[in-house]
Design goal:
The chain is an alpha+beta fold and about 90 residues long. The chain is about 25% helix and about 35% strand.
Length: about 90
Amino acid sequence: MIKVNKLDLTGQLIYIGLDVHKKSWSVSIFTRYGEYKSFSQPPQVEALVHYLRHHFPGLCIMRFMSGYCGFWIHDRLERREWTVPW
């Protein structure tokens, strides 16, 4: 039998870095323990929201980092109260 320990990040701060392009987004997620995961996804806010809801069900406090092309993504997620101000 294999025992799997899940990292519970409920109420903790996580950072999400976005590299935004027309055909895909590169996403990097970091916790206070280091890099959690990096992946590419379709360029859709709903795809990112789906991933975050599935992998972080306790909803952590999130901060998003992106260049000027990603400000609109941050604004959409902020409306969902998933981010905290700098």
